[in-house]
Amino acid sequence: MTTENKEPKKVIPIAVAAPDEELVSLYASHQKIYPRSVSGVFSNWRWIMVWVTQIIFYGLPWIEWGQRQAVLFDLSVRRFYIFGLVLYPQDFIYLTGLMIIAALSLFLFTAVAGRLWCGYACPQTVYTEIFLWIEKKLEGDRSARIRRDEGPMTAEKFARKAGKQFLWIAFAFWTGFTFVGYFVPMRDMADAFLGGKLAAWEFFWVFFYAFATYGNAGFMREQVCKHMCPYARFQSAMFDKDTLIVTYDAERGEPRGPRSKKADLSVLNLGACVDCSLCVQVCPTGIDIRNGLQYECIGCGACADVCDTVMDKVGYPRGLVKYSTENAMNNHWTKEQTVKRVMRPRVLVYTTILLGIVVAIFVSLAMRTPFKANLVRDRGVMARVVDAGKVENVYRIQVMNATESSQRYKISVSGLPGLLITSDDTISLASTQAGTMALRVQAPPEAAAPGTHPIHFVIESLDSPGRLDEKSTFMIPQ
């Protein structure tokens, strides 16, 4: 009987940290932020923007304009209705202009006052404010929410949190429903929903947008602004030393420290900051503005509001935290000097370009012909000689009525002697409809030499102002 030679097992030494060494994780766990409620000038403006934006968002789909929804981007028929304006895919240039206006507006607002859009009108900020308001009403202010989250689950805690989740989901669903109502007639969709006949794709997008609102405003909140939004990353490229930003006056506030209301600061060698940390507690992204400008700051001004409240209580002048510029702080400028410097060449250039594009778009819309036409020579019918030796070419014309009333269009042709349309030269179209018709155009044989000759068609509306010219060619065979 043989035995196999077995190698001895290898012993792998395990590194044991020395007593004086510390294990440091490279990833920090997310700490939930409990923003404290605040009141003040900037908070009031933020809520004004919440009301304005949401009244517009939730109200527009229910407004009627004639026999239809006032604002409707109807993808099924590829028509966009904006009050009395009807746009088609061919009007893509206006969408391009709108995107350019939005981009330049963002550049302008950022150059003037930093993340002004983020702090007051961004949907993430607006819906976070609404969700926080619901949370406060059901779970209490900051300290009450912290105590409740750290405590055991009780019937009261469960009821409050369940009620909050129910209101969040209901509000998110209504937001998603309203969003889809811009692309599907709102009243038709409401009837279909109540009747249980909502289309699958409509239900999907309602659910998708509701889920996004619920997740972003209810749970992700500041993480969207800090990690997902690209604006936080490239905003610094649009800042300069004359951009208005939320600023802590370190020269006046430091050294910080607690003190009694009647304390003499010169004796204590303290600045105006009482180190109450309220500016951190009210910040929706959880930063400390006293550490200087940070990319997480959305410029909402909540820290300025609460700091002014503290300054009022201790009897110090307001403005320890305020909107100011780096140059204004370094040079001790007055408010008038700061505002004057804000209107610098960079801002004036942005403003001029923006106004120019806005004026150009409005002028273009005002001068826009209320119908469209597309004319091509019928390639299926060659140029031919017909009665009395006349030469005939056949064309096909498509006319699109861009108005919301029935229209008649008359077509004429010119370019060669004796050239005329021998078929019907008038087309009638219902509102926002398109139609195609064939045009037979004849010319005498002596009108021109054999070959191809340029001609012009004129399409004119008989019921409203409007005229279009279309170029084509007339062929005379050998």
Which tags fit this structure?
478 residues, alpha+beta, Immunoglobulin-like, five-stranded antiparallel beta sheet, four-stranded antiparallel beta sheet, 17 helices, 16 strands, 42% helix, elongated
Secondary structural class: alpha+beta
* Molecular shape: elongated
Largest sheet: 5 strands, antiparallel
Helix content: 40-55%
For the CA atoms, what is the radius of gyration?
34 Å
Indicate the low-confidence ranges by residue numbers.
1-7
User: Count of DSSP helices?
Assistant: 17
N/C terminus separation: 110 Å
Can you count the beta strands?
Answer: 16
Mean pLDDT: 88
Beta fraction: 15-25%
- Total domains, how many? 3
Summarize the structure.
With 478 residues, this protein is of the alpha+beta class.
Protein model, in words:
This protein has helices at residues 41-59, 92-113, 116-120, 123-139, 142-150, 155-180, 186-194, 200-220, 222-228, 231-234, 250-253, 265-268, 278-281, 302-314, 326-331, 335-342, 345-366, and strands at 64-65, 68-69, 71-74, 79-82, 85-87, 245-248, 321-324, 371-377, 384-385, 391-401, 407-414, 420-421, 426-429, 434-443, 451-461, 467-476. With 478 residues, it is an alpha+beta fold. The protein folds into three domains: 41-234, no CATH class; 237-335, no CATH class; 371-476, Immunoglobulin-like. The strands form five sheets. Strands 8, 9, 10, 12 and 14 form a five-stranded antiparallel β-sheet that branches. It has a four-stranded antiparallel β-sheet with strand order 13-11-15-16, with no helix packed on it. Strands 3-4-5 form a three-stranded antiparallel β-sheet, with no helix packed on it. Helix 4 (123-139) runs antiparallel to helix 6, helix 4 (123-139) crosses helix 8 (200-220) and helix 6 (155-180) packs across helix 8 (200-220). It is elongated, with a radius of gyration of 34 Å. The N and C termini lie far apart (110 Å).
